[in-house]
Amino acid sequence: MKPKIFLIEDNEQNRYLATFLLEKHGYEVVAAADGPAGIELARTVKPALILLDIQLPLMDGYAVARELRNNPALRDIPIIAVTSYAMVGDREKALAVGCNGYLEKPINPDTFVTEVERFLPSNKKGNPDDPNPDSR
Amino acid sequence: MNHTETKEYSMPRFFNSSPAAILAVAIAYALVAKVSFLFTIPPGNVSPVFPAAGIALAAVMILGRRALIGVWLGSFAANTMSFSHGAVSSVHTVLPALLVGTFIGLGAVAGAGMGAFLVRRFCRDEQPLYSGWNVLVLVAVGALGCCIISPTFGVVSLSLGGYIPWEQFGYSWITWWAGDATGAIVAAPLILAWHHPHPFRRNFWRIIEAAVLGIVTLLLCFVVFFRNMPFAYGLMPLLLWAAFRFGMRGASTAAAAIAVLATIGTGHGGGPFAKDTINVSLLSLHSFLDVTIICALFLAGLLAVRKRAEKVLQESETRHRFLFEHNPMPMLIYERDTLQMLAVNEAFIRHYGYSLEEAMALRLTDLYSDEEKAKIAELIPRLHGHANVGEWHHRKRDGSFVTNLVFSHDLEHRGRNARVAVLTDITERKRAEEALRESEQKYRELVMLANSIILRWSRDGRITFLNEFGQRFFGYTVDEIYGRHVVGTIVPASGSNGRNLPLQMDEICANPGAFEQNTNENMRRNGERVWIAWTNRVVHDERGQVVEILSIGADITARKRVEEELRATQASLEERVLLRTTELAEARDRAESADRIKSAFLATMSHELRTPLNSIIGFTGIMLQGLAGPLNAEQTKQMGMVQSSARHLLALINDVLDISKIEAGQLKIHAEPFDLRASLEKVTALVKPLADKKRLALRVVLPPDMEPVVNDRLRVEQVLINLLNNAIKFTERGEVTLDAGLIKDYTSPSQGTPQPAARLRVTDTGIGIKPEDMEKIFQPFRQVDSGITRQHDGTGLGLTICRHLADLMGGEISSKSVWGEGSVFTFVLPLNHKSKP
After folding, report:
1. Which residues of chain A make contact with B610, given a CB cutoff of 8 A?
2. Interchain contact A11–B (C-beta under 8 A)
3. What is the ipTM of this complex?
4. C-alpha count within 13 angstroms, C-beta hemisphere, residue A63
5. pTM of the predicted protein model
6. What is the pLDDT of residues A55-90, one digit of tens each?
7. CA closest to A108 among chain B residues
8. Is residue B56 within 8 Å of residue B112, measured between CB atoms?
């Protein structure tokens, strides 16, 4: 059975893009469009990995990450922050609130799935501390 | 002479008791009278010799009126006995004798009393014998004058009593009077002289002389009165000798002796005065004796006066000599005409340093300074008859000068016309006076000319002193300001700030101690207000009462004005600073908020731009991968163009974001050790496809050993990729070369200390850059030759970012180019990044 990846992304096109890419590679994708719904859904879905957009309506990605980390049931699920924020400190801020990885938008369709797979618990070939050595 | 003065006569203590004195007088009188009666001439009891009358006079003069009782008793006894003895004793004879005796006694009392009274009355001295006048008074009034009383009483009584026939009255009276008078002249002086205390010099030669005088007198009396030799007048010089040499005692004693012997001799019918009857003989003797004795006594009286005068003179002389000789003030006597020194005293010798002989050889002018010599010589003749006081400079023997106050006065000195001068040395006094005057002058000048206001004012506020500076300062003269109240003159009625200055003055007067220092607003005469800092001191009198206040003031108007201006300036400055600070704070707040807005805007922009790009790039990639189904050749070509444009747009967004971050200071350098060679190979590999596509040779020239670098690897690679991309982009033929070298002592434009650095150089053979465009290429969106821009895609921000990054990493980028031949871009990278201070 393919691992379940939970996606919290407010932009419909991007949600579709990521879902399309991941599903093409055989993952099951569950998506939510905002933070509170995402937190609610994450409890029931119990995904293997969460892809978290930072710029969200109602509740930003940092707050969502903090909330998720406060839930013991969800505490160990890897979270990858995906953000179009590219200011200094964004990455550090994301890691500080409990995210395991950080991907910058726009995503590269050629490498996206590979990068996500590095953070899956079963996949030990990646280094979670250096999620994207070439990003800038 | 009054009664009390008689006490000055000393007398034996015995006579101090009145009854004893009276008895003694009575006995003496009676005995002497009894002896006298031996010479009694019949008829009656009239004796031509009666010294008892002298005893009576002397006794009353010495003992006073109580002696009169003794006189009466003596007289009564002698006469009564005499008469009762001569006649038949019976009641008929005794009774008249008692009556006659009583009256005769009364006559004797009246004569002696009157005589003593008159003598004392007319004598000019308490000593009745010791002047010529007194002797004459005694003889004329006491003896010759008052002896008319006793015979008058006596002879009348005897005649009434039938003892003397009336035809004998005149003769008897004369005999009685002559006897009494002579007796008084002989006896009274004798008693008085011996009674009077007289310092007798018991000198051997004087005793011998007295003895010789006595013997000669006795011999002469004997020769004259008992051998009838005619030398009676030889008695005169003997009496004068006695008077001259032995005074009143000598004269009276010699007179008494002569009188006694002469009377005895004459009574016996001897001597030159012996006449037919004894009575006549005695009367003529009496005339002789009276004259010679009176002369001798008179001489003795004169001599006594002279002796006393001499004594007084001598005492005076001694006193004055002492006053002159031992006077502590220097004194001198000089002759008026010659100015020759006649006498000087001890103090002069001591003071001037001359010996006595030297001093006596001086002339007065020798004492004076040369300037004063002529002056004094000219002055002295004019001083005659006047006392004079002058101040002169005298020269001492050692040549030093003293200032003397000279008091001089005419004086007859040993028969010469002289002047005596008393000298008071006032040198020290003059010097002290001078010093005092100078000191006073100095202090006066100090006070008057001091450049401070010096003011004295009484407790009631009246000005008693104001120095010259103060007068000038306030604009008053002494006459205008002294005595006036401070308020209304130098103190205005009210201060410019409304302070009640007169009230403050009252406070100072009432309690000056509390106002040792005060600053006051004062007023000049022209009304100008001035500020003065005063120091006040209280002046007390001897009883500690405050009498005056001494105030010293300094004009601080200018200072006060400056202070006030300063205060005003400071206040306005503070206000301006406050205003400016507020403005700046507002500006800062605005700037900060603008910054925040900019950052937020950039973040939002970045997000909002990337979000659609995400889909575009993503779906284009998916389509080109064929994941959404197969594409034909044309579709693949067009989708490739979409992808290329989207990527260019993304690069643009990234570059703008970088510039923004750099300019906002948000771009941080993350220094870490890395392998430069590996990075160089990596970037070369990255751009290799582009070079290959344009058929350009890409050469890499690296040294065999490369130093390890500590810096931001990603940023170094970003810079190199940019430079290499540009070189390839602008080169159509030829080659692009990347080479590396080491600069040992690199001094960056931003950091002063030399340090090792890597030199990374990209050389191309492209179109080159015109010199005038060389700096423009580093500015944002300034691609050279916009016409070519389209041919050479790029954001136009690359070199700007590279230069900023190189600067942030402590290095620099420089370029050289020859238009049409190629360019060289050199990137200098310090081996060890140091964060900017």
Report:
1. 84, 86, 105-106
2. yes
3. 0.74
4. 10
5. 0.45
6. 888 888 888 999 888 888 888 899 999 887 655 567
7. B618
8. yes
**Strand order from edge to edge, sheet including B416-425:** B341-344, B331-335, B416-425, B401-413, B388-395
Low-confidence ranges of chain B (pLDDT < 70): 1-17, 41-45, 83-93, 125-126, 198-201, 495-499, 501-502, 512-513, 599, 603, 750-751, 781-795, 835-837
Domains for chain A: give ranges and CATH numbers: 4-117 (3.40.50.2300)
- Cβ-based neighbours of B382, under 8 Å, separated by 6 or more: none
Q: A34 to chain B, minimum CA–CA distance in Å?
A: 16
Residues of B in contact with A106 (CB under 8 A): 610, 613-618, 650
**Domain annotation for chain B: domains and CATH numbers:** 1-197 (1.10.1760.20), 202-319 (no CATH), 326-431 (3.30.450.20), 450-555 (3.30.450.20), 668-830 (3.30.565.10)
Listing DSSP states for B215-272 in one string gives HHHHHHHIIIIIS--S-GGGHHHHHHHHHHHHHHHHHHHHHHHHHHHHHHHHHTT-ST
Selected for mutation to probe chain A from B599, B601, B607 (highest A CB count within 10 Å) is: B607
The CA-to-CA distance between both ends of chain B, in Å, stands at: 139
- The β-bridge relationship of strands A49-53 and A79-83 is parallel
Mutate to test the interface with A, among B597, B602, B610 (most CBs of A within 10 A): B610
Show the CA angle centred on residue B730, arms to residues B724 and B736, nearest 5°: 45
C-alpha distances in Å from residue B805, one per residue of A134, B685, B776: 17, 22, 17
User: HEC string of B796-813?
Assistant: CCHHHHHHHHHHHCCCEE
